[in-house]
Design a protein that fits this description.
Blueprint (H helix, E strand, L loop, with lengths): L2 E5 L5 H10 L3 E5 L3 H10 L3 E2 L3 H6 L3 E4 L4 H8 L5 H4 L5 E4 L5 H13 L3 E4 L2 E2 L1 H6 L3 E6 L2 H11 L3 E8 L3 H29 L4 H8 L7 H12 L8 H17 L5 H15 L10 H5 L9
Parallel strand pairs: 1-2, 1-4, 2-3, 4-5, 5-6, 8-9
Antiparallel strand pairs: 7-8
The chain binds NADP nicotinamide-adenine-dinucleotide phosphate.
C-alpha cells in the first residue's frame, strides 16, 4: 500500500481519489474549495491537507486532476504548491487534460527535484471515473510508468504508456480531434433527418448497424434528438481541449481544418448559453440558423 496525495476533487478527481481509498491506499486529498474535501472525507477513509504542499509532503505518488494549464501551475508552484512539498524520489502524475508543453515543463522541474513525472490524461467521462473504468494515456519514462501502473489501474480499464513526456497529452488531443469531427457529422445527419420528417429513432436504429455507427451515435443520438444536454462532457472543457490541439498542430505544421471549424461552432454554442452543456449540443446550433455564419 502506498501513500498517495490527490489534488483536485472535481467531477473526475473525487471518485478517482475514492477508488484509491477503497483499495486501501493511504490517501491525502486537497481541494481548493474545502467543502468538497470535507464531503470526500465523510464518504471515504483518508486525510485532508490544507495546501497542495502539505498533501505532497508525505506522498510516494501525487496525483493531480484540475482544469487547465494555469490551474495546474497554480497548484504546482509557490510556497504552498506541490513542488514545495514533493519528496525526493516521489512521482507526480498529472491527470488534467493540459498541453504537451506543460508536460515538458513539469517533467523538467520535477527532474530537478529528483522526482518522476507522468502526463496521464483520461477519457471515459464522469461515469468512467465513478465506475473505475477510465482509459489513461500516459507519457513519460518506463520506470515511472511501471511504478504507477498498479495504482492507475485501480480507476482504469486501460492504462497505456504512449511514449516519452507529452505523449499522453498528444494522444488525448487526437481523441478530442476525432470526437469533434464525429459529433459535427452526427449533428448534421440528425438535423437533416429532422428536417426531412424522418423517424429519428428508426433512422438511428438502421444506420447504427452499418458504417455510420459510432460511440456518439449509440450513446448520444437519443438525447440529441430530445434536445437534452444538461450532463456529460462540457463544451467549455472541449474548447479548452481543441485549443490545445490547434496550438499544438500549429507548432508542428499539422493541418486541422475541420477541428478549427468545429471549435468555432462550439463558440456559437457558448454564445447560446451552452458552455456547460454536453458536447453533443453542436446540433442545437444547427437548429438556430441565424447563428450559422457559413451558409
Ligand atoms: P471540475 O469538476 O470542474 O473540477 C476541477 C477541479 O480542479 C476542482 O477540484 C477545482 O477546485 C480544481 N481547480 C480548478 N482550478 C483550480 C485552481 N486554479 N487551483 C486549485 N484547484 C483548482 O473538472 P473535471 O470535470 O473533474 O475535469 C478535470 C480535468 O479532467 C479537466 O482537465 C478535464 O478536461 C478533464 N476531463 C474531464 C472529463 C469529464 O467528463 N468531466 C473527462 C475527461 C477529462 P474547486 O472545487 O475549488 O473548483
Amino acid at each position: 500500500m502506498q501513500k498517495i496525495a490527490f489534488i483536485g476533487l472535481g467531477i473526475m478527481g473525487y471518485p478517482m481519489a475514492g477508488h484509491l481509498s477503497r483499495a486501501n491506499h493511504e490517501v491525502t486529498v486537497y481541494n481548493r474549495t474545502s467543502e468538497k474535501a470535507v464531503a470526500w472525507k465523510e464518504e471515504y477513509q483518508g486525510a485532508i491537507a490544507n495546501t497542495p504542499c502539505k498533501a505532497a509532503e508525505a506522498a510516494d505518488i501525487v496525483c493531480l486532476c484540475v482544469g487547465n494549464d494555469d490551474d495546474v501551475r497554480s497548484v504546482v508552484y509557490g510556497k504552498e504548491g506541490i513542488l514545495a512539498g514533493l519528496r525526493e524520489g516521489s512521482l507526480l502524475v498529472d491527470h488534467t487534460t493540459a498541453s504537451p508543453t506543460l508536460a515538458q515543463e513539469l517533467a523538467m522541474v520535477t527532474d530537478e527535484r529528483k522526482c518522476g513525472f507522468l502526463d496521464a490524461p483520461v477519457s471515459g467521462g464522469q461515469a468512467g471515473a465513478e465506475n473505475g473504468a477510465l482509459t489513461i494515456m500516459v507519457g513519460g519514462d518506463e520506470t515511472s510508468f511501471a511504478r504507477s501502473k498498479q495504482v492507475l489501474e485501480i480507476y482504469a480499464k486501460s492504462v497505456r504508456l504512449m511514449g516519452p513526456t507529452g505523449s499522453g497529452q498528444l494522444t488525448k488531443a487526437v481523441n478530442q480531434i476525432c470526437i469533434a469531427g464525429i459529433l459535427q457529422g452526427l449533428s448534421e445527419g440528425l438535423h437533416f433527418a429532422e428536417k426531412a420528417g424522418l423517424d429519428i429513432k428508426a433512422v438511428v436504429d438502421v444506420i447504427s448497424k452499418g458504417a455510420a455507427q459510432s460511440w456518439q451515435m449509440e450513446n448520444r443520438s437519443e438525447t440529441m434528438a430530445a434536445g437534452k444536454f444538461d450532463y456529460g462532457f462540457a463544451v467549455n472543457w472541449m474548447r479548452k481541449d481543441l485549443g490545445i490541439a490547434l496550438d499544438t498542430a500549429n507548432s508542428m505544421q499539422a493541418s486541422l481544418p475541420l477541428t478549427a471549424l468545429v471549435d468555432q461552432f462550439y463558440m456559437d454554442v457558448q454564445r447560446l448559453g451552452g458552455g456547460r452543456w454536453d458536447t453533443s449540443s453542436l446540433i442545437e446550433r444547427l437548429r438556430m440558423p441565424d447563428l450559422i455564419r457559413d451558409t
